[in-house]
Write a structure and sequence with these properties.
The protein is 29% helix and 23% strand. It has 452 residues and is an alpha/beta fold. The chain has 13 helices and 21 strands. Helix 5 runs parallel beside helix 6 (196-209), helix 7 runs antiparallel to helix 8 (254-265) and helix 10 packs parallel to helix 12. It is elongated. It has helices at 15-18, 42-48, 81-93, 112-120, 164-181, 196-209, 239-250, 254-265, 289-292, 299-308, 340-345, 350-364, 367-371; strands at 10-13, 52-55, 59-61, 68-74, 97-102, 106-108, 149-150, 153-158, 185-188, 214-217, 235-236, 278-279, 312-316, 373-379, 383-389, 394-400, 406-411, 418-421, 428-432, 435-441, 445-451.
Length: 452
């Protein structure tokens, strides 16, 4: 089977924000094909080195996309089904895979089956579609019944994913997405809330249609092995390392992220060493990384870690320029409309764009970085060195978060005569007695050394 995701670098777009869609759907306007804006970004995305796009919610919804009203049609604020079909075709023509959000835990109050319950009450044929629908008490929104929600948000109505009719409806929708839209994968929203049997059935259906279909789950806490296995998901969101990546810099404590790397990927005891986790430094739900870091220059060694650690790197749209955004009662600041010309010609972080481009190229050309085992070499508060190793290649990564230059002697875990810095002008350093002294580690920067 083609495990394309092992070669993937993702670009994550939240479409309703990215396209500047109205905040609320009036459910009567003609479709506006704002998704076509993505065409203008294709070359930029390719320059970054991304070969896969993860689109947040694209289906008809009330507001933010996670309150679905119809799983079978693209949100009119983004276009129509043909808009998306043509977009996917163009992206595929540019060798870019497409993954979309599958929001199955809950629906919006405008979901057609829930509206039938609102209209017909206990006589509705769809009462059993919703978890713990109870006509003996009222909801906080003054409905003549209560129901389960996601996280207490009554505009997000929990589906009963054990109901055969619900599963049939959702599986038919997904089948259509694969056969008509030709998507390459799904990111399952709130995967930690989904029934395991539902995930297993979904996986079976998807992979029968498309054997290399990729299923990735949003998991905030817990043992990722519960979800990632041959019968369920291929990957999950690596929230453990998301936290460690920024806080190890802010606290000047590389021991934190080194502990997570070793716990997850260590050569003997790493509990996720056979999983390609989905790695990120920000997304549509959390503060932009440029707003999270205490020192703006930490963003460079942090991205080196993102692109050289085991797993799949992802960039959230706009963060490649170091734009800021914080969660303040709403997520609007995290999900802005962006204009490619104005942001790229403005006062953006062009050094970061160039670095991401270079890191993606280095990763693309290195099997060790994509699939090599992880080995910790040296950890200090402000410096950290580790290796990625295959039988054919050994890459050693050294990051320095200090605002001062540093130096480091590192053990070389394989035979070689010298190391070549493939990030910094091919500088070469000699190996003597299985050790290599690196005299200059620039402030808030890194070296990526290939053993020769």
């Amino acid at each position: 089977m083609n495990t394309w995701y092992k070669e993937a670098t993702f670009y994550h777009i939240y479409p309703l924000g990215f396209c500047g869609a109205p905040k609320y759907n009036d459910f009567k306007s003609n479709p506006v094909e704002s998704l076509e804006k993505v065409y203008d970004w294709v070359q930029h995305i390719k320059y970054l080195g991304a070969n896969s796009i993860y689109f947040g919610p694209i289906f008809e919804s009330t507001s933010h996309g996670y309150d679905t009203s119809d799983y079978n049609i693209v949100d009119r604020r983004l276009g129509n089904n043909d808009t998306f079909i043509q977009l996917v075709k163009t992206l595929h023509d540019n060798n870019i895979r497409v993954v979309i959000d599958g929001v199955f835990n809950h629906v919006g109050r405008d979901f057609w089956a829930f509206k039938d319950v609102l209209l017909n009450g206990q006589k509705s044929s769809y009462c059993s579609w919703f978890k713990n629908l109870n006509f003996n008490q009222r909801s906080p929104l003054n409905d003549p019944f209560s129901y389960d929600t996601w996280n207490g948000y009554y505009n997000l109505v929990k589906l009963d994913l054990c109901n055969p009719e619900v599963k049939k409806y959702l599986f038919e929708a997904v089948t259509m997405w694969i056969k008509d839209f030709h998507i390459d994968g799904l990111r399952l929203d709130c995967a930690d809330c989904l029934d395991f049997n539902f995930i297993t059935e979904l996986s079976s259906i998807c992979k029968k249609i498309k054997p290399d279909f990729w299923l990735m789950g949003e998991i905030i806490h817990g043992d990722y092995n519960r979800w990632v296995n041959t019968n369920m998901l291929d990957s999950v969101t690596n929230y453990e390392c998301y936290k460690g990546l920024y806080s190890s810099h802010n606290d000047k404590n590389y021991f934190e992220i080194a502990y997570s790397f070793n716990r997850q990927f260590g050569e003997n005891s790493g509990i996720y060493r056979n999983i390609y986790l989905y790695n990120f430094v920000d997304n549509h739900d959390v503060n932009r990384i440029a707003s999270t870091l205490n020192h703006s220059d930490y963003i460079y060694p942090l991205h080196v870690l993102l692109f050289t650690m085991p797993g799949i790197p992802s960039i959230y749209y706009g963060s490649e320029w170091g734009i800021k955004g914080t969660k303040n009662n709403t997520d609007d600041d995290l999900r802005p409309e962006l204009d490619l010309i104005s942001i790229s010609s403005g006062n953006c972080n062009k050094k970061l764009i160039k670095l991401i481009h270079e890191l993606a190229e280095i990763r693309k050309d290195s099997n060790a970085l994509k699939q090599g085992q992880y080995m910790q070499i040296k950890v200090m508060n402000e410096q950290f060195a580790y290796a990625r190793i295959t039988k054919e290649q050994c890459i050693i990564i050294i990051v320095n978060l200090s605002e001062k230059s540093s130096s480091m002697e590192v053990d070389i875990p394989v035979k070689g005569s010298n190391v070549i810095d493939i990030l910094n002008n091919k500088e070469t350093f000699k190996i003597e007695n299985n050790k290599c002294f690196i005299p200059n580690l620039d402030p808030c920067w890194a070296r990526i050394l290939e053993v020769k």
